[in-house]
Specification:
Blueprint (H helix, E strand, L loop, with lengths): L1 E5 L4 E6 L2 E6 L2 E5 L6 E5 L2 E7 L2 E7 L1 E7 L3 E7 L1
Parallel strand pairs: 1-9
Antiparallel strand pairs: 1-2, 3-4, 3-6, 5-8, 6-7, 8-9
Amino acid sequence: MQLGIYTIKDTLFLGEVDKIIAKTTTGEITILSDHLPLVSTLVPSIIKVTDKEGEKSVQIKSGVIEIRPESRVVILASA
């Protein structure tokens, strides 16, 4: 699954991942490959990303997550 985490000034993460855990206004979600399309607001939290090298964390103040068809995920965040 392809993930991009962007702020207005920077790219915080770009690459292939196996799993994403993020906190939305309605609760925590886990995103795996072939997830249904979704758009949701993110709350201040740490986004956990698992790739071949292990788990990484990206702290955000707020944001929006968009899960697109073909396992593409875009997060626009304020960090």
